[in-house]
Every structure is written in C-alpha cells, then in structure tokens.
Amino acid sequence: DVKVTQSSRYLVKRTGEKVFLECVQDMDHENMFWYRQDPGLGLRLIYFSYDVKMKEKGDIPEGYSVSREKKERFSLILESASTNQTSMYLCASTPPLAGGSYNEQFFGPGTRLTVL
Amino acid sequence: LAKTTQPISMDSYEGQEVNITCSHNNIATNDYITWYQQFPSQGPRFIIQGYKTKVTNEVASLFIPADRKSSTLSLPRVSLSDTAVYYCLFLLGSSNTGKLIFGQGTTLQVKP
C-alpha cells in the first residue's frame, strides 16, 4: 500500500515563526501536492511538484514556499507564520500521469497547525 | 472562473441509497472525474473514478452524463460507517497547465 506520512499531526506555533511541514511518500511517486483544508472552503491547492527541484503554484501560494530536494520528500514552508494560516494541511502524491490525469491522489493524515 | 457545486450536507438512514451530485463546468476534455471520502482526522481516500457514462465498483457507482458537466456519486444501502465528507475532484484546463479543483465537500450523515 502507498504510504504518505506527515511529520506532525498537531503543531502550535507563534506569529512570525518559520514553520516547516514535512511530507514523505514511499511509492516513488513523481507528483506531490500540498493542500490546506478549511471549514466551508474544502481543499485548496497551495503548491505541487512534478519532479525533484520542480514546483508549481496552486491556487493559494501566497505566504508559502516549498522544497523538493529528494523525490520522496516535499516540504511546505511558512516563512513567517500568521494567524490566518491556522488550518489543516494535507499532503498527497500520485504516480506518473496516465492520460493526462492527476486524479487518484494518495493523502497523508494531515497536520493541524495552529498559529497563535 | 471554475466553479463546482455540491450540496453542503445530506442526511440519510441506514439501508437507503444516497446520491450526491457535483456540477463542474469547464472540465478538461480528457480529464477523469474522481470522488473521495474523508473521515474526521484523516486524509481523503479515493472511492471511484470515471470519464463518462457509468462506472461501478464494490463501494459505489458513478454516473456521468454525456456533457460531463456534472457527476453523481451513488452509494447503495448506506450504513452508519458511511458518515463522512465526500468530495469530487477534476482538472480544469489541460493536463500540463490545468488546476486541480476539489468540490467543497458534502457532509453525509447516516442515521440509524
């Protein structure tokens, strides 16, 4: 089975801190994604990566950056955390595209980040 | 502007069939429509995927009309354990430059 793990289930940080969220997948997937999930807004894509050292902005990249130095690891970075970044963060990965579709994504359990 | 529409919530009783519809105008020509299930404190989990007409697996059926501007997830004979949030997902635009669009989710509450 595909396994996607995230470094923390719960995280509490203070405004202005630099925050690292780590995601690791063990199935040699090319594509990895970071989403945030908020009540009433569903899942929104922050960034994704289709290869090592490659990254693409999603719908809401402001205030975030990412790093993909190794194929299995995709990190989300909050350079200076703010209270409006309090949310559930979900990482996902997919194998290479088949017919142009990203659709079957394998998700991690999520990290609930609280910024005070 | 891409837009998806799902009902925010639905109630059902054990043993009933539940149909959840997602509308998705401007879906990419070659993209599949996928549905996910999410339980509290877990990441979403793939349920079913289809391109057109009808797809059925051991968990659900997916109905997609010819124009592909909507899709309906059908859960036969739901049980209490089907209480979850259900999301549709599709790709807006081309496979290389498109954006992944999740619906806003439908919270299904199954009652005894």
Annotate the secondary structure layout.
The complex is a heterodimer of chains A (116) and B (112).
Chain A lengths: L3 E3 L3 E4 L5 E7 L5 E8 L3 E8 L6 E2 L7 E6 L2 E6 L8 E8 L11 E2 L3 E5 L1
Parallel strand pairs in A: 2-11
Antiparallel strand pairs in A: 1-3, 3-8, 4-5, 4-9, 5-6, 7-8, 9-10, 9-11
Chain B lengths: L3 E2 L3 E5 L4 E7 L8 E6 L6 E6 L2 E4 L4 E4 L5 E6 L8 E9 L6 E4 L3 E6 L1
Parallel strand pairs in B: 2-11
Antiparallel strand pairs in B: 1-3, 3-8, 4-5, 4-9, 6-7, 7-8, 9-10, 9-11
| CA-atom Rg of chain B in angstroms | 14 Å
State the end-to-end distance of chain A: 37 Å
Using CB atoms under 8 Å apart, which protein chain pair has the greatest interface?
A: A-B, 27 and 27 residues
SSE string of chain A, helices as H and strands as E: EEEEEEEEEEE
Low-confidence parts of chain B: none
* Percent in strands of chain B: over 45%
Query: Would you report the number of β strands of chain B?
Result: 11
Helix content of chain A: under 10%
The class by helix and strand makeup of chain A works out as mainly beta
Principal-axes shape call of chain A: globular
Largest sheet of chain A: 7 strands, mixed
**Count of separate DSSP helical elements of chain A:** 0
Order of helices and strands of chain B: EEEEEEEEEEE
> Which sheet architecture does the biggest sheet of chain B show?
6 strands, mixed
Number of helices of chain B: 0
Helical amount among residues of chain B, as a percent range? under 10%
Shape of chain B: globular
What are the salient characteristics of this protein?
heterodimer, A: 116 residues, mainly beta, seven-stranded mixed beta sheet, four-stranded antiparallel beta sheet, 11 strands, 51% strand, globular, B: 112 residues, six-stranded mixed beta sheet, five-stranded antiparallel beta sheet, 53% strand
Give a written overview of the molecule.
- The complex is a heterodimer of chains A (116) and B (112).
- In chain A, 0% of the residues lie in helices and 51% in strands.
- Chain A has strands at 4-6, 10-13, 19-25, 31-38, 42-49, 56-57, 65-70, 73-78, 87-94, 106-107, 111-115.
- Chain A is globular, with a radius of gyration of 13 Å.
- In chain B, the strands form 2 sheets. In chain B, strands 2, 4, 5, 9, 10 and 11 form a 6-stranded mixed sheet that branches. In chain B, strands 1-3-8-7-6 form a 5-stranded antiparallel sheet, with no helix packed on it.
- The model of chain B has no long low-confidence stretch (mean pLDDT 87).
- Chain B is 0% helix and 53% strand.
- The interface between A and B is medium-sized, with 27 and 27 residues.
